[in-house]
Amino acid sequence: MVDETPPVIETPYVRIATLEDVEGIVDVMCQAFKHDPVLNYLSNAPKLLDETSDPKHHNHRRIFLRFLLKASFLVDGRITVVVDPNASSANEGAPRERIVAAAYWLPPNKRLAVWMIPTIVRAGALAVVKVWGLKPKLLFQRMIFDYQETSHGQLHHAFKRKGTKKSIDDTWYLQMVGTDPEYQGRGLMSLLFREAYTHDPKSTYTLEATTSKSRDQYAHLGFEDCISINFGRGKADAQGLTAKGEKAVGLEIYGMIKVGTYFFFTISSSHRHHYNSIVVTRSTTIAPGKHRSASL
User: Fold this and answer.
1) Pick from 17, 68, 261, 269: CA 20 to 30 A from residue 291's CA?
2) Within 13 Å of residue 280, how many CA atoms lie on the same side as its CB?
3) Mapping DSSP to helix (H, G, I), strand (E, B) and coil, where does residue 98 land?
4) Gap between the Cα atoms of 77 and 97, Å rounded
5) What SUPFAM superfamilies has UniProt attached to this entry (predicted)?
């Protein structure tokens, strides 16, 4: 007799996210992007976020990250997560499944645009405006024009300089990727990228690195540092915090592109044991639009 019981997965694996995963993903992103310069700038933050001493503003950041995730779902984004099936729980240390990393991939010609008012509202933009205390005009000026349009325009020109006939909008765009700090250094971000490349190996991928550290990480994953993008001068310092005068130098982020079908993956000896214990993927296929729900 053949035992048809599926094998028990004991190591982290990648799968497609569902709406039930929203809060778990937001938990990860809140920690991963706690001091992110772009989020500091968008929220008009006067100082670095400290969730212990300032739980109110930590919750405000959470509301924005929930909005961004829901918006990615609503434009048919391909949201993937790394799950640790054996994370300990508060219930006497019993194992439970825990989301420990996530990536929001927006397919070619699927972007959140300023004219998509119903989608933006449905994703929770009004809650963001309310808790951040910003005038809608200021919030969307920073999010759409200062950041998104500046980055898109400069990436567009960099893309054309490569001589490709395609538009920047024909690429897979990485809206966001993050790993729980407790799990950083284990190769989980690389796992998410490898899964994406396997899903669509012939496509071009684009992203913005919001720190020099993440820029270097993406370079190791096949991306080229195409262009330095500056914005927020006169409004914020290099950390995205509200500033005036000489300190208001603005932010520097990096537009990056991965072109072609070739991806060479290398593992340093110090991390090899992590990869040996990780399942590359356990995918769940979801037809386009199936993850959209009235609950959004």
Assistant:
1) 261
2) 7
3) strand
4) 23
5) Acyl-CoA N-acyltransferases (Nat) (SSF55729)
Which candidate, 58, 50, 2, 4, places its Cα nearest to that of 29?
58
Q: Dump pLDDT digits (tens) for 273-290.
A: 443 333 333 333 333 334
CA angle 136, 141, 142 (to 5 degrees): 105
Q: What is the mean pLDDT of the chain?
A: 80
* pTM, rounded to two decimals: 0.80
The predicted structure's pLDDT at residue 279: 39
Tell me the per-residue pLDDT of 26-35, one tens digit each, with 9 for 90 and over.
999 999 999 9
At the top level of CATH, the class of 13-276 is alpha beta
Three-state SS annotation for 10-58: CCCEEEECCHHHHHHHHHHHHHHCCCCHHHHHHCCCCCCCCCCCCHHHH
- The CA distance from 12 to 275, in Å, is 10
pLDDT under 50: residue ranges of the chain = 90-91, 262-294
Structure tokens belonging to residue 21: 């995963």
